[in-house]
Design a protein that fits this description.
Layout lengths: L14 H9 L10 E7 L2 E9 L3 E8 L12 E2 L6 E7 L6 E8 L5 E4 L6 E2 L7 E2 L10 H10 L7 E5 L1 H4 L12 H5 L2 H8 L3 E4 L3 E2 L12 E5 L6 H13 L3 E6 L25 H4 E2 L4 E2 L6 H17 L4 E4 L2 H5 L21 H17 L4 E4 L21 E3 L1 H11 L11 H4 L10 E5 L11 H4 L4 H17 L3 E5 L24 H19 L13 E5 L7 E6 L8 E6 L5 E8 L3 E8 L15 E4 L9 E7 L3 E7 L4
Parallel strand pairs: 10-11, 10-21, 11-14, 14-17, 17-18, 18-19, 19-20, 20-21
Antiparallel strand pairs: 1-2, 2-5, 3-6, 4-5, 6-7, 6-9, 8-9, 12-13, 15-16, 22-23, 23-24, 24-29, 25-28, 26-27, 26-29
């Protein structure tokens, strides 16, 4: 092949495409930019298009031309869009390529992966594959009904996993399992443990494996470490066929400095800011997107829609919102530039976030966006039209830190920190919260959830069960990182599998059984999920019993008779004759007791329930006198009679 085989004829772009691209409103650029197989003038081949407005020359190099920089040059459109394009006949899916970019303003030259590439080589190789995204989906039943599963009133229990370390080949622990191999075991496990959704830590292509995917270069490609795009589609498809939703971690906050990626793409700061006080992230040593640039907003929002469109994702968990909305994030005085009003807010990033959420919910109203936000920015999960940022939900980071701080303390001293548990209700309904016990809490020397619990092994397991019970009965949706559900001892490490052999012991299988039953109860009882985001779904029974380190509260669905009484005992002391008020007389069934022997507990309980006494208490007409198990949670519901 030589340069004459590049055809500069009719392209994939219409005048409307270019108009939308320039004004920052083209959100399906993955259908236009990148490499697309097509026929032109009777010949099959590939249409290439890349945005590089400051380049003086762009050519396609690949295994089809010996990586020759001069044989297949693209031409720049004459409409000031900065898009270079051309059709190369004879190229087929599976061909490897890059763009070789020569800058127009300096001597910069570099071979770049395609920013819109659908598939890349497995790192450390960096070329892009010509790829078609054809796949025969079998998840129509899920897709037609998922609006209900993703509703704010639905039970939502999310299992967060890192694909490369959930399981590995038991005969060769160094070998990563493929998407298809994971698909043979993950759906069954998630269904059996009762989770409603899976959240994958970033699966988009990333050069540095220990970044866990948060430093990505492939915004339109699943990592090749585990297989092809169709292999990942198969995994999503299989989960959907099991009735399990799929949420993807998505990172629009920064990108790495690898030369083959977005950085200094056409010899200028194209995707990032020129001034390092705006464009370089000092904590992560990465680059920050220029959210004020129309073409960059096109790129990012197109990426978000791409995963919902082509991969049937049910939601996006958007990473590191705090770093986006504050210009001084991780910076000292003098290391950041104020906005035009002199403030620290990143106005362009805020506009981008709002537009992102509006666009996602416009095109895919039955999906969700979730903010990982550690700030007190108001109305993060409120619609843009009422002044919010437009996310569907927000991680409740304060709840996570307060709960883990409390649970890590010796029970002898917990009475002094009782407010760490009660404080979260004061702001529980200010946002649509997800309660996360995420990967961030089991790395970097923090230890696993199990190891952070005080006491001997029995007490550690009991503490973990009561903490999970508290989480599953607290207002808000739930998220648990892999391994926590069975009491993984070791801190998470991305290079090894979870310790699945622990499930062979009663201590650890009991924790998993407890989580499975909590999930089942959470899904079955409307009182535990229907009003997760409304004050009417929660009522304190007694929040002031700090001396005994006991919390009691009621969860409600808004329907009479659905009320569930929850009592948590955060000490290893059995409390007999403990009284709690209830709204009705009759028999109150013990729905769950985390101290049950089937969970590895001591078996202290209430023989399946009790009749309410005609004794007013806690402002109610009736009350229950019960036995509270050590380091345990008990749930009661009035039994209905026909």
């Amino acid at each position: 092949m030589d340069a004459k085989n590049v055809i500069y004829g009719p392209t994939l772009f219409t005048d409307q495409d270019i108009y939308l691209f320039k004004e920052g409103n083209h959100f399906k650029l993955y259908d236009k930019l990148g490499a697309h197989t097509r026929k032109l003038k009777g010949r099959s081949g590939v249409q290439f298009a890349v945005w590089a407005p400051n380049a003086r020359e762009v050519s396609v190099i690949g295994d089809f031309n010996g990586w020759n920089r001069d044989s297949h040059k693209l031409t720049c459109r004459l409409d000031s869009s900065g898009i270079w394009e051309g059709f190369i006949p004879g190229i087929k899916p599976g061909a490897l390529y890059k763009y070789y970019v020569r800058s127009g303003s300096n001597n910069y030259e570099a071979a770049k992966s395609d920013p819109f590439g659908f598939a890349h080589q497995s790192p450390p190789e960096t070329a892009t594959y010509v790829w078609e995204l054809d796949y025969e989906w079998k998840d129509s039943s899920w897709m037609e009904s998922r609006a209900e599963a993703n509703s704010l009133a639905a039970p939502m229990s999310i299992y967060e996993i890192h694909i490369g370390s959930w399981k590995r080949d038991p005969n060769n622990p160094a070998r990563l399992l493929s998407y298809r191999e994971i698909a043979e075991t993950l759906p069954d496990y998630v269904r059996d443990t009762g989770f409603t959704h899976v959240e994958f830590m970033p699966i988009m292509e990333h050069p540095y494996y220990p970044s866990w995917g948060y430093q990505k270069t492939g915004f339109f490609a699943p990592t090749a470490r585990y297989g092809s795009p169709q292999d990942f589609m198969y995994l999503v498809d299989k989960l959907h066929q099991y009735g399990i939703g799929v949420i993807l971690d998505w990172v629009p906050s920064h990108f790495p400095s690898d030369e083959h990626g977005l950085v200094y793409f056409d010899g200028t700061n194209l995707y990032e800011h020129q001034d390092p006080r705006e464009g370089f992230h000092p904590e992560w040593k990465s680059y920050i997107f220029n959210y004020g640039r129309n073409e960059v907003r096109n790129f990012l929002i197109s990426s978000a829609l791409f995963w919902l469109d082509k991969y049937h994702a049910d939601g996006l968990r958007v990473d590191a919102i705090a770093s986006m909305i504050y210009r001084d994030y991780a910076r000292s005085a003098g290391e950041w530039i104020p906005n035009k009003y002199g403030g620290r807010e990143n106005l362009e990033a805020l506009d981008f976030i709002k537009r992102l959420n509006e666009t996602v919910y416009h095109f895919f109203p039955d999906t969700m966006t979730i903010a990982e936000d550690s700030t007190a920015w108001p109305m993060v999960s409120r619609p843009v039209y009422v002044g919010g940022l437009g996310f569907g939900m927000k991680w409740k980071m304060g709840w996570m830190h307060d709960t883990l701080d409390y649970m890590s303390r010796d029970p002898i001293f917990r009475s002094y920190d009782h407010n760490r548990l009660t404080f979260s209700i004061w702001y529980a309904f200010s946002e649509n919260y997800v309660l996360p016990l995420s990967h961030d809490e089991v790395v970097h020397g923090k230890g696993s959830l199990m190891r952070r619990m005080p006491g001997d092994n029995w007490q550690k397991a009991a503490n973990l069960r009561v903490m999970f019970g508290y989480m599953f009965t607290h207002p808000g949706k739930k998220l648990l990182f892999m391994g926590g559900e069975f009491g993984q001892w070791n801190e998470w490490y991305h290079e090894v599998s979870l310790d699945w052999h622990l499930l062979e012991t009663h201590l650890h299988s009991g924790i998993r059984n407890c989580v499975a039953d909590l999930n089942s109860l959470y899904r079955a009882e409307p009182a535990l999920h229907r009003l997760d985001f409304e004050p009417g779904g929660f009522r304190w029974i007694d929040h002031s019993d700090y001396r005994n380190s006991v919390l009691s509260y009621m969860r409600m669905s808004g329907r009479p008779g659905d009320e569930i009484l929850v009592i948590c005992n955060f000490t290893p002391v059995v409390r007999e004759g403990y009284r709690a008020g209830v709204p009705q007389g009759g028999f109150w069934k013990e729905l769950l007791n985390s101290d049950s022997t089937i969970y590895g507990g001591s078996g202290v309980g209430n023989f399946g329930g009790m009749n309410a006494e005609d004794v007013p208490y806690h402002g109610f007409t009736h009350s229950l006198q019960m036995t509270l198990p050590p380091l345990g949670i008990v749930l009661f519901k009035k039994e209905k009679h026909d």
